[in-house]
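As a warm-up, study this chain.
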Amino acid sequence: MNLATLQPYVPLSSEAVLNSNQIVALGKQDSIDILPASAAADPIRPEPTNSPVANFINGVEYNLRPIDVSQYGDYSFDVFWEQSKSVKWDILALYGGITVFGIRNWDWGTSGYHFESEGWFGTDTKYGGMDKLGHAYTGYLVSQYFTQRIAHSVDDPKNAAITGSLLGMGFQTYIEVFDGLAGEHGFSYEDMIANGVGASFSFLRNTVPGLADKLDYRLEYWASSDYHEWNPATDYDGQRYLLALKLSGFENLEDTPLRFAELQAGYFTEGYTDQTRKAGVDPSRNPYLAIGLNLNELLGQAPDVADTLPGLAATTAFTYWQPPYTYVATDYHN
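Now compare it with the structure written out below.
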């Protein structure tokens, strides 16, 4: 080594030395997450082409790829307004559609305004609690939809989980307000609480690290063909709601065969609709436990399929819908 080439020693200035208080302050600032190379990056918005069909397909595929919405922080009405404007057509479509549906199917506008205490899961309630689980599920689903649509529509998805949950709760509140003008319904505070549970679960699932990898809230619809026409929205005797605990979301199990299994806890009723009451079906409330297949984990074993448009659609569906015959349960529909 040639000592002549070494640079002379230059002492650090006082500004370059951090004291203990400055080190603590740095620790409180935003951190940088270092992810493994295998971690999935957020999808890139597709460039428009000259083909409307290609643009539509590319847009659908882009929106089916989830974006990380775990970041949230300073929030204001301006943030809410700007993010809401990014999905204004979605808002108009959903509100318009539910207005027409409510007038035609829920008797909106047929009575003066009134309130109704409907109870929860008691034997003497009209639907045995299935309507409350339905309100929570719809609040959750709509919140999830708005959250991801905002994330796909704006440049910065920070706080999308807040705005999405607020929009989901707003949509459910709109429905409940107009239920107050329906002769067979009425404004129900129990429904509003259930709506809030669903919207809150969406926010927590999007922002609590690892929760989305571990827990799904799903609907299974089993058509009650003897008494009902096919109607997954209002056929409470044909529905079941469940929470699925996915073993693949736990670090100690993610590389074992148990990652293909999940533990489920659900609930369904029989004899709690007008049709089944007229048919003399004995009312029953049925909680159950089950062991099921993690269909998305199975689908992930074929990445060439999972990364296609049908694969992405299936992945999204399996997150919110429970296909029949994919689990072993302690109780089933008769």
